[in-house]
Predict the structure.
Amino acid sequence: MTIALRPLIAAVCVWIATLPCAHALEPAKGKVILTITGKVGEKNSSTGAAFDLSMLERLPQQTFTTKTPWDKNPIKFKGPLLRDVLAAAKASGTTLKAAALNDYQTSIPLEDAKSFDVIVAHQMNDQTIPVRTKGPLFIVYPFDSKPELRSNVYYERSAWQLKSMAVE
């Protein structure tokens, strides 16, 4: 390499280092409806990863219809896969401690996010979920997809009115 190219290469390296990372978690612009704390590698707030509804809607969306023990009729749920939400925050660990607005708490093995198409639903029956009917977010398993999911173990891991998850 000639000495004349060194300043140019150095300038390009500095310029590249200042570019925003394409995979960085952007700051929430709207009202934060979900925070992920603990073992997260991608933070956009002082405490962890904060998501507004728009950020969750930009993740790949999944839809399924399933019966739940809380409603008479099957419900159509829509939202990103839990594993995609955790990937956006670069979460790593073995357990999620999910907390709801009504102070309900549950522990979810991180393996569930890999083994099942669990979603963080923001819609029920094509409608945004209001707080009074389990919203704004609902961790829900596709209960009808596998017989083992139709049990209290998985029903108790579901959390409506989800507000936060701590990754341990």
Q: What stands out?
A: The chain has five helices and twelve strands. Residues 10-22 have pLDDT under 50 and may be disordered. Residues 12 and 41 are 27 Å apart (CA to CA).
